[in-house]
């Protein structure tokens, strides 16, 4: 799979800045309509959406999923976003664990982790 950035609900200015940076780094960008948030990350990355999955019109929040990036490329991407002052509040990396999650599930987990971190708590039980 080609290194891909999956975006959801990014305002046009952020989306444009991200796309310019992605071109420089040789990354593909896929913008996903929020209504498809019920699909799994794998389905969205490979364009395998299923019409039987109900639309999720109330999905909100900006999200960036990074799939197939090397560590160096990810560092360059994140540095470039910081330099351009492009703040995307929720970012994740595609893993074996989350590949079968829907965008809704990923969003919920990222919000839970963010809230736990802000409260000085551990987001995951040990």
Describe the biggest sheet?
A: 4 strands, mixed
Structural class: alpha/beta
| Pattern of helices and strands | EHEHEHEH
Strand content: 15-25%
Please compute the radius of gyration using only Cα atoms. 15 Å
Mean pLDDT: 92
Residues in helix, %: 25-40%
Distance between the termini: 33 Å
Shape: globular
Q: Give, in spatial order, the strands making up the sheet with the most strands.
A: 2-1-3-4
- Tell me the total number of β-strands: 4
Q: Indicate the low-confidence ranges by residue numbers.
A: none
Helix tally? 4
What are the key terms here?
single chain; 126 residues; alpha/beta; 4-stranded mixed β-sheet
Overall description:
By secondary structure, this protein is of the alpha/beta class. Helix content is 38%, strand content 15%. The chain is built from four helices and four strands. The chain has helices at 12-25, 41-45, 71-83, 103-118; strands at residues 4-8, 28-32, 63-67, 90-93. A four-stranded mixed β-sheet has the order 2-1-3-4, sandwiched between helices. Strand 3 (63-67), helix 3 and strand 4 form a beta-alpha-beta unit. Helix 1 crosses helix 3 (71-83). It is globular, with a radius of gyration of 15 Å. The N and C termini lie far apart (33 Å). The mean pLDDT is 92.
List the helices and strands and how they pair.
Elements: E1 4-8, H1 12-25, E2 28-32, H2 41-45, E3 63-67, H3 71-83, E4 90-93, H4 103-118
Parallel strand pairs: 1-2, 3-4
Antiparallel strand pairs: 1-3
Helix pairs in contact: 1-3
């Amino acid at each position: 799979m080609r290194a891909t950035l999956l975006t959801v609900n990014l305002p046009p200015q952020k989306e444009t800045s991200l796309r310019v940076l992605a071109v420089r780094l040789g990354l593909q960008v896929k913008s996903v309509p929020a209504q498809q948030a019920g699909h799994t990350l794998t389905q969205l990355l490979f364009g395998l959406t299923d019409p039987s999955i109900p639309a999720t019109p109330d999905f909100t929040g900006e999200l960036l999923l990074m799939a197939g990036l090397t560590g160096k490329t990810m560092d360059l991407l994140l540095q470039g976003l910081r330099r351009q002052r492009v703040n995307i509040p929720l970012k994740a990396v595609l893993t074996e664990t989350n590949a079968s999650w829907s965008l809704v599930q990923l969003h919920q987990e990222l919000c839970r982790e963010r809230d736990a971190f802000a409260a000085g708590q551990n987001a995951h039980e040990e």
